[in-house]
Amino acid sequence: MTVTKQNTHSYTTTCCYCGVGCGIVVNKDKKGNITVEGDKNHPVNRGMLCSKGMNLHYAANDKTDRLLYPQVRFNKNMPLQRVGWDMALERTAAVFKTFINKYGPDSVAFYVSGQCLTEEYYVINKLIKGFIGSNNIDTNSRLCMSSAVVGYKMALGEDSVPVCYDDIELADCFFVTGANPAWCHPILWRRVEAHKAANPNVKIIVADPRKTDTCSIADVHLQINPGTDITLNHAIGRLLIENGDVDFDFIKNHTEGFEQYKQIVFSKTLSEAAKICGISEEDIQLAARHIGNAKGFITMWTMGLNQSAVGVNKNLSLINLNLITGHIGKPGSGPFSLTGQPNAMGGREVGGLANMLPAHRNLANPAHRKEVENFWGGTAIADKPGLTATEMFEALNSGRLKAIWIICTNPLVSMPDVRMVEEGLKKAKFVVVQDASNKPETLKYADVILPAATWTEKEGTMTNSERRISYLNKIVDAPGEALPDAEIICRFAQKMGYHGFDFPDFSAIYDEHARLTAGTNIDITGLNYQIIKEKKTVQWPYPQHETGRGTQRLFTDKIFYTPSRKAILHPVPDEITSEKPDADFPFILTTGRIRDQWHTMSRSGKVNKLKQHIAQAFIEINPEDARRLNIKEDDVVDIRSRRGEVRVKAKLTTGIKKGVVFLPMHWGKILGNDLNRTNNVTSSLVDPLSKEPDFKFCAVHVEKYQKP
Ligand code: SF4
Question: Which parts of the chain span the membrane according to its record (predicted)?
């Protein structure tokens, strides 16, 4: 909706950074420059914006780094040259057809992004799965949310976040684990802070090897050893059972697996668990008492649990706490995975991952495949899952994968063991890079570059962490010849000769996506652009004849999506399968975000104000470890793993445990030097079920840099 003010037009949209999904009012002046302010009428942020959101206009107005026209390299020895859209897409289609004919559909792949809009995800997924005949589509959301997806599916029967943000003000105990929402989900966390300030009896438990800003309002900070989350969650589970603080009626009537769960949590004493976790028994007891006393209990987590070689098990061990206490499907209670990216949820809804089908249908289920196949009317959907994010680059290295199309993501900074990824791109026979920015390192390896429109330059929808769908307005024209991603894909599909991609506009793509959700648990057949705009935002499911704002909470009837309709308690083992530290690599490295930067900094890195918080990459190290290694504040330090090295300045803090170091994940190559790039050292291990990488745990050697 637009409102005309003096010489400006105002539009509502949604922040394109994190999964909180704050509403933004964009004011556009006569020259087309924009400013932003928080949308006071938006139910998520009620007018507030964090530092990243409130400075979005600086990044959006700066077009100096934009890709402006398509470019093609006609063979590997030639430079890129400017071409028109038809030529770029015809060339790409010709190369794709050659590989598909010669090596089969699995010789090509799309690697996309949680920044893509739902419509974009939908058409890319339809193209590769429904027409090319491969499931080789994966997304950088694999790097952040896939363990939660599998955890929800195994425990609740489907990838379904049960809670909503309004539950925050109804809860009296929060267990925040493997997350630093004070920095990474700031506006959501401000709601928790305000709730606690108004209600001092609200208890906050934080589990994290680092003392982050989130701990500043914690009643208990469980500063656990990295990787010991499951041991901690089991110990809390045991105490809840021992103290009689579980809901036996709920367990009996609505769950399966309690006896096996009891066996596993009672297999370690409290004292054994405390020793493994590196914290006191008293602190675990206090946390369990707070949870046991709660009337409304929310578990909140993100990458600290998900980005692990046992990420799914970590998720399950946490969801178990909600299940044994019956804190799910009621106001103020539930497990709540905080989504990293703005539309990771939308990507999951359309099935835009290597092992999923639209509307949470199951790729392994022949009936589900047939349903989607019939709907799309293309080729048979392959029954075997496609390559996941890390597998794609491994397959480029081995030569199994010939062509990769990278959309709106920067794998040469964000992928684990990134030098392996770079080797893969060097060996790739054909690389297409579709991006708004001319900065990603991937462009160096591109055979085709396609300029994409970005935030405010295209319309579409996104879904935030609480299943809230919002509409994003097109507010300004894209520079040069840049096009919306969905349009690029539809034009390409038509060059390939596929039908079903001649959508008259983006709302028609959304309508098709909505129709395909009919009869599923995420039914949004009652939605279209007009309704989303009228309602401003809605939460799925939103079936036909729905008249309100959608579904705030799931499982209020205590009926779960499993075959038995009961939630499943999984008795997961608490072993740590990450790379073990040893004499050569004695430190555990954990990685994460800083407050004012976003991912690989392609947008936030353009804003001077945001650099004022922290301007350079750094390593956090405990002062006792630093003293032993003769490292002082701001000394340059070498960090080495079995895969590579990083060289950054030291930041000494007692907020990190001895034996553990932390690197932020944002920085890539600077002037050709890749020693700021944290992922030179991270591990290529992944969770066996979710295939999410183990970013939070690898063995490293740390020493003061000595000039040669
Ligand atoms: Fe944007 Fe997230 Fe900040 Fe909200 S909390 S303004 S969605 S970055």
Answer: none
